[in-house]
Each structure stands twice: as structure tokens, then as C-alpha cells.
Amino acid sequence: MGLQWTVKFCNNTKYIFKTDDDMYVNIPRLVTLIKQNEDVLQTSVGGRCFMSRRPNRDKRSKKWYTSFEMYPQNNYPGFCSGTGYMTSFNVVSKVVNISRNIPFFHLEDIYLSLCVNKLGFKLHNFEGFIPSLGELRDKYNNDKHHPCIYKNESLVTMHQVPIKWIKHIWQTPCL
């Protein structure tokens, strides 16, 4: 629905970034990444992408559980994590059109990949989407809570960041 809304009301935009509400997004790094990959994004979706993953068949996993009836294949097509991905309006408009012919699937990132796959478009894995904080912590004396870690030029997104912390990151000046 978000993509349909974008096509209907934002048809003069060039790029779309979808993210979850518990994500810190390093906007300056994201803008740079989009500018560096304008051509690639005309026929791809990019972020933290996995080329193959098995469906979760464990019924105890309520959110990610996928029965054989819901998805009979042993592996999902490649997909980019729904925590944050980017693409062009070109891709989104085509996904919205083809989605009318793709059966509903409960996991939005997998559903998007089903549409992208059907269109013959690609996935593009970008560094910096939900990276390990290990290498970044080294620059700040192993302080994983230092707000400047999140403004590092190699980080694009970080998952499970509370809104108060996101505000703190944005308000803290870094060298």
C-alpha cells in the first residue's frame, strides 16, 4: 500500500527509501549512496540483500512463519531486508503494476522481491545497511553507545534504535 500511495501521490519523486520505525538512517550517507548509484537503482532494489534464504517453517515463529501452502518452494528468491531498502520511482511504478498479478504474501520484503523477480530486475547489496558495530566501536574506545558511531560514513542504517536515541544521535555534534 505504501508503494501504491507513492505512485499515486508522489509521482514526481525520483527515489524511494522504505524503512521501519525503529531504524536510525544516516541521511547524508543515504543521499550520497543514491547519487552514486542512480543508474543501478533504475532497475534494482538495494539495501541489505540476501540472495537465498529458506522460509521459516517453525510454527512458533508467529511473524515469520511460512507454511508450505503459503510458499511451496524451499527457498525465497533473493530479497532485501524490509528494515530499509531503496529504489527508484521507475521500479516502484512497475512493481505496483505487476503486483496485481502476484498473489499476496504476508512478508512485505519477500513480496517485493517476488515482484522484482517477475520484472527481471535485480537486487543490489550495499555495505552499511545494518552493519556490525564492532569496527565502528574501535574508533570510539569500544563505546557502542557513542552517538557519533551512527554518523560514521560507512553506516547507512542501524536496526532497533529507540526514537529517543535517534534524536540524541541527530542532536550530538561529531567531528
From TrEMBL:
UniProt KW keywords: Glycosyltransferase, Golgi apparatus, Membrane, Signal-anchor, Transferase, Transmembrane, Transmembrane helix
GO MF annotation, one: hexosyltransferase activity
Transmembrane region(s): none
GO BP terms, alphabetized: protein O-linked glycosylation
Record membrane topology: Single-pass type II membrane protein
Enzyme type, top EC level: transferase
Domain of life per record: Eukaryota
Subcellular location per the Swiss-Prot or TrEMBL entry: Golgi apparatus membrane
One GO CC term on file: Golgi membrane
Similarity comment: family membership: Belongs to the glycosyltransferase 31 family.
Name by which UniProt lists this protein: Hexosyltransferase
Organism from which the protein derives: Mytilus edulis
